[in-house]
Write a structure and sequence with these properties.
The complex is a heterodimer of chains A (461) and B (405). Chain A is of the alpha+beta class. Chain A has 14 helices and 13 strands. In chain B, helix 4 packs across helix 5 and helix 11 packs across helix 15. The relative contact order of chain B is 0.13. The chains are: A alpha+beta (461), B alpha/beta (405).
């Protein structure tokens, strides 16, 4: 281990002597402490959270991510280009130890920078929270600076699929459809059925039955929060629509009715409900009445959610930083793997391009959902197909599978909405991001570095 | 390897020239290829040689002849296109074998942001040397290469010569059995060159194997037992240096100046067997290096402090195979309370039996000026010699620039 520690020490030394550590630390402190101190929030808990938590944590992740890639590419590629690696590799240290030493060096640097900036944000958060009005402070403490578990309606996908199949059979019995159009017909029926489950017609009620599961035992006498979101095809003059809620299990628990709520579409809303509205099995029934003249659509995945207290903010915050650290680990592995094969500028460009690909993965996802990369044909009202689909769509699918290993965790969003990041989630993030994806990149990088001839180039000053 | 084990290796150069092969190269070929895998340059072409334990082996050749490529192949930094290499009976990529190798590359490829002490500490850690050993060796090496006074300056701030010195120090941190030096005297001043050559000889006397790659013929001639001469990637000549350079058809006799009559008698006898035009009588001259070192030694009598490298001290104790005596309180007390040395005591101490003439010379060169009374004025009988030295000094100053202040 002495050899690996020597390489870790060298990486730290380089980061300090080239002032990278100090510059990144200063930038982080400037952006996460100085700017939020200068920028005024709107005095609400939500505005406060947006600036002090969402903005700062996103900035930390972005800045650290870029510096990690840069350092990872530089620390190895430049050592090879400037030929110092020729001297190191002739010492009794295996190539994999050099590689791992560099990797651990970058990870420990990241850990230090993340701890520094994370602690600063936490201190800033606590300090600035005291300056909010009392009622906003209450909202902040109950909705953001907590760790809340979440319960949703059981998945209706199976029900929708079987209903779709039933309707398709009926449709085929009435009038046969050619084999070519069958998939399209089924898709349309599926969308119709799904819409029926999501839509609440004017004057109608939609009921959600949400099971709180084992958490119910801890939730007696504790108020819960309902978080909902709806969409509407129409607009109202005020920009809002009215919704009424009833919560409680009829004949089993007390029923609680809300006042008419005038809320905007396409955004999340939260309200608190009194304690003990769920039954002994943990079942909570929520009904939403649509008194408007237009239909409201509550999306299946994020339309209705019950949030309940699960733990303190500080450990939740630490776990959130833990997931950000996992992201940094995979970026370090990516940068080092690229630098094992390429020169510094090429490796940096390659790694940054891959990072950009992650940000634009939405385009790939929609192409995969549509099954083609062809554009929408406005004249025909249909989407065509491309000969490249055979190759591109499976490639996109594979890329998305890899990207989703990383993107399926959203610690900033969870912390900003006061949701709990469980140890299980952190463990899963570590397994998926660091062990699986990072491990693959490490293995590839080490294999390339092991085989590489280190003395093919003359030193570049 | 412990010092005891190291000293058990053949102590003399002649005895070490046995068949104990340290590096074996057979049919070695290296072709550099371009991005598409097309041959670009044939750097080494079907080379065979062995390097035996305890010998100083020279790779000689003009620039681009394949010397450095051969060295890098031996070190596992490049992969052979054909042929094979064994170092201590293993592949050049065998990690454990590298514990016995010290390497000085042709340029000082060191971390510019580390200072010289940190550099040695870092490389010492790669050999898993214990902390105390590491520190001790670093100090001895810095002293040896004359960088102990600038050990806190970053290597990036060093002159090329100073970088070579610290490069040499890192190559010796592990007390290697095989030392591979690629152009070791490149960028060094004549004193540094001499010190490096003395060091190579000292290492060889301890049974170490040295591979020296150079295009400087004088370097190779001074220290190598055997050489290969490269040209165009192929070996053009190979063998013991004495055999390669010997002229068996002539002899040379050097004596102190003889009276004219004696000379006439000697020549008369010789001319009985050899034609008069085949006999040559002249006064031997010392070479420029010896003359230069003499000039510098004189100049050092009035030495000022330097921010650059100082002349190296004795070869590091652990490289000489000596056990470091532990400083005892008694000795420290003795040193602190000892009276200042008298001028007569400033004479060089008799070299220890284990020490060589080269080490003694090195010591004589680097001995600090005694603090006692000012030196006696130069004898009046030597004004001509003094003037000659001053002239040479001026010439050298013009050639090399002013000494660092």
């Amino acid at each position: 281990m002495q050899r690996v520690f020597a390489i870790i020490w060298l990486t730290w030394k380089a980061a300090f002597r080239f002032r990278l550590f100090l510059v990144v630390a200063a930038l982080l402190l400037l952006t996460v402490v100085a700017f939020p101190l200068l920028i005024k929030d709107d005095g609400t808990a939500r505005g406060f959270t947006q600036i002090v938590l969402t903005y700062t944590l996103s900035t930390i992740a972005a800045l650290l991510g870029l510096s990690t890639l840069w350092l990872a590419c530089g620390t190895l590629a430049r050592d090879i280009e400037e030929c110092q690696m020729q001297v190191v590799a002739t010492k009794p240290i295996a190539r994999w130890q050099i590689w791992i030493g560099k990797y651990l060096g970058i990870l420990t640097l990241n850990a230090a920078l993340l701890a520094l900036s994370g602690a600063s944000v936490y201190a800033l958060l606590q300090f600035r929270a005291t300056r909010l009005p009392p009622e906003q402070q209450h909202i902040l403490r109950s909705e953001v600076l907590v760790a809340r578990g979440s319960a949703r309606e059981a998945s209706l996908e199976q029900e929708i699929q079987s209903e779709t199949d039933r309707l398709l059979r009926e449709r085929l019995a009435r009038s046969p459809v050619s084999q070519v159009d069958l998939a399209e017909v089924r898709k349309q029926i599926y969308e119709q059925v799904k819409a029926e489950y999501q839509l609440v017609q004017p004057g109608y009620i939609r009921v959600w039955e949400i099971n709180l599961g084992p958490a119910r035992h801890r939730l007696r006498d504790k108020p819960l929060q309902i978080r909902f979101k709806y969409n509407s095809a129409d607009r109202s003059p005020s920009g809002t629509f009215t919704v009424l809620f009833q919560v409680g299990v009829p004949d089993k628990t007390p029923l609680w009715r809300s006042e008419p709520m005038s809320v905007a579409p396409d955004t999340f809303h939260e309200f608190e409900i009194p304690p003990n509205l769920f039954d002994a099995d943990g079942l909570l029934t929520i009904s939403a009445l649509n008194p408007n003249n237009t239909s409201l659509l509550f999306p299946l995945d994020e339309g209705m959610e019950v949030l309940y207290p699960q733990g303190g903010f500080a450990p939740n915050y630490l776990r959130g930083l833990g997931i950000i650290f996992c992201w940094m680990a995979v970026l370090a592995a990516l940068g080092l793997a690229a630098a094992s094969l390429m020169s510094f500028p090429v490796a940096a460009f390659f790694s940054l391009s891959l990072l950009a690909l992650v940000f634009f993965s939405g385009t790939m996802a929609s192409a995969v959902a549509e099954g083609t990369i062809a554009e929408f044909d406005a004249e025909r009202g249909t989407r065509g197909s491309s000969p490249a689909d055979v190759v591109v769509i499976p490639t996109f699918k594979a890329l998305l599978a890899v990207i989703n290993l990383v993107k399926s965790f959203s610690p900033v969003d969870s912390l900003s909405t006061g949701r709990s990041i469980t140890w299980g989630q952190l463990g899963l993030a570590f397994a998926q991001i660091v062990v699986l994806l990072g491990g693959l990149l490490c293995a590839a990088g080490i294999a390339i570095f092991h085989r590489r001839e280190l003395a093919t180039a003359q030193a570049t000053p | 390897m412990s010092p005891a084990a190291l000293t058990a290796v053949s102590p003399t150069r002649s005895a070490s020239s046995n068949n104990d092969v340290v590096v074996s190269v057979r049919g070695l070929t290296k072709v550099f290829k371009d991005f598409w895998g097309r041959p670009k340059a044939l750097a080494v072409d079907n080379v065979d040689f062995d390097v035996r334990r305890g010998e100083v082996f020279g790779l000689l050749g003009p620039n681009g002849s394949g010397k450095s490529t051969t060295v890098k192949l031996i070190l596992g930094l490049l992969h052979p296109t054909k042929g094979f290499i064994e170092v201590f009976g293993h592949s050049p990529r065998h990690v454990a074998t590298k514990e016995r190798i010290g390497y000085l590359p042709e340029e000082s490829y060191l971390y510019r942001y580390l200072n010289s002490r940190e550099t040695l500490e870092f490389f010492g850690n790669l050999f898993e040397l214990p902390k105390d050993d590491r520190r001790k060796r670093a100090e001895q090496l810095l002293e040896m290469v004359g960088l102990s006074q600038v050990h806190l300056r970053s290597v990036g701030e060093f002159s090329k010569g100073m970088q070579r010195r610290i490069g040499l120090a890192q190559a010796l941190i592990n007390d290697p059995d095989l030392v591979i030096l690629d152009e070791p005297t490149s960028g060094l001043d004549p004193i540094g060159c001499r010190e490096v050559k003395d060091l190579i000889l000292a290492l060889a006397r301890r049974g170490k194997t040295v591979i020296l790659s150079s295009h400087l013929l004088a370097d190779v001639e001074d220290v190598c037992d055997r050489v290969v001469i490269y040209y165009g990637g192929r070996i053009q000549a190979m063998g013991p240096l004495r055999e390669l350079l010997a002229n068996p058809d002539a002899i040379q006799i050097t004596t102190p100046a003889l009276p004219r009559e004696t000379m006439e008698r000697v020549l008369q006898i010789i001319r009985q067997d050899v034609a008069a035009d085949k006999v040559r009588v002249d006064t031997p001259t010392q070479n420029l290096e010896t003359y230069f070192l003499d000039v510098v030694q004189k100049a050092r009598q009035a030495a000022a402090e330097t921010s650059g490298a100082t002349s190296g001290a004795r070869v590091a104790a652990y490289l000489r195979g000596e056990a470091e005596p532990a400083p005892t309180p008694d000795r420290i007390l003795e040193r602190l309370t000892a009276p200042p040395p008298k001028p007569v005591e400033a004479a060089p101490p008799a070299p220890a039996p284990a020490e060589t003439a080269a080490q003694a010379k090195l010591e004589a060169l680097t001995r600090p000026e005694p603090a006692a009374p000012a030196p006696a004025p130069a004898p009046a009988a030597e004004p001509a010699r003094q003037a000659e030295l001053e002239k040479a000094n001026e010439k050298l100053a013009a050639l090399l620039g002013k000494p660092r202040s």
